[in-house]
Amino acid sequence: MLKAGTNRQIQSTQTYKLTNKQISIGSGAIRFFCFKGEKLELEVGNWKKKYYNVSIEKERRKGFFMRGMTKREREVTDLNEILKILDKCKILHLGLVDGDEPYVVPMNYGYTLDDGKMTIYLHGALKGYKLDLMRANPKVFFEMECEVEHFEGSVACQYGTSYSSVMGRGRAEIIEDVNEKKSGLSIFMKTQTGDDFEFNDKMVSAVSVIRIDVSEFTAKHRPMPARITGEHS
């Protein structure tokens, strides 16, 4: 557990020091709201309240994670487990801003996850509605799920679904640089097929490639109930 006076790298560009009432960050200050167990509730400047896991024993995603889940026992924080989910899902649901309404479209994707920083690559036609929306407002949200399996019960509230998922938000950029488009498409195909592909200028000129710089994300796994698996704690 983080102790008073201990430095802890929570966000990739900032180190926080917990004192009795504050956490100092450079010349600024973070108001201290709540510190119970592994949950720390902070507010920095104009930021809204955010929740951070500050356990020394558990390595977290260095700042690129979203506010805490209601059911914390279902949150996946192990990087290897998150990678498994990203490799299995294959399709994500991309949320875009359409004026004052949401617009969601399913898409295949590729990704990289380096030092806790996730980048997602998409591709599509050179023209289209989703590209127009991204140009007007690059803010996006995404969700993906896999290992979806329904289960039954003796009463309605015992029915449910087991699954693993990743969701997050970021900013989309339509890539113009030819070499970056080639790299993005290679990452895309590696995620989708597990194989390595190379692309030439003519191939990449026929498609649009979108890069999503993910600012925060979270992963989740809802297991099968113990009454079905036969496992008991």
State the end-to-end distance.
24 Å
Assign the structural class, choosing from mainly alpha, mainly beta, alpha/beta, alpha+beta, or little secondary structure. alpha+beta
Sheet with most strands: 8 strands, antiparallel
Number of helices: 5
- The count of DSSP E runs of length 2 or more, i.e. the number of strands, is 14
Beta strand %: over 45%
Radius of gyration: 20 Å
Q: What is the overall silhouette?
A: globular
Name the assembly state.
Answer: single chain
Q: State mean pLDDT (0 to 100 scale).
A: 77
- Helix share, percent: 10-25%
Q: Give the topology string: H per helix, E per strand.
A: EEEEEEEHEEEEHEEHHEH
Low-confidence stretches: 1-65
What does this structure look like?
The protein is α+β, with helices and mostly antiparallel strands. The protein contains 5 helices and 14 strands. Strands 7, 8, 9, 10, 11, 12, 13 and 14 form an 8-stranded antiparallel sheet that branches. A hairpin with a 2-residue loop joins β1 (7-11) and β2 (14-18). The radius of gyration is 20 Å and the shape is globular. It starts with 6 loop residues before the first strand and ends with a helix.
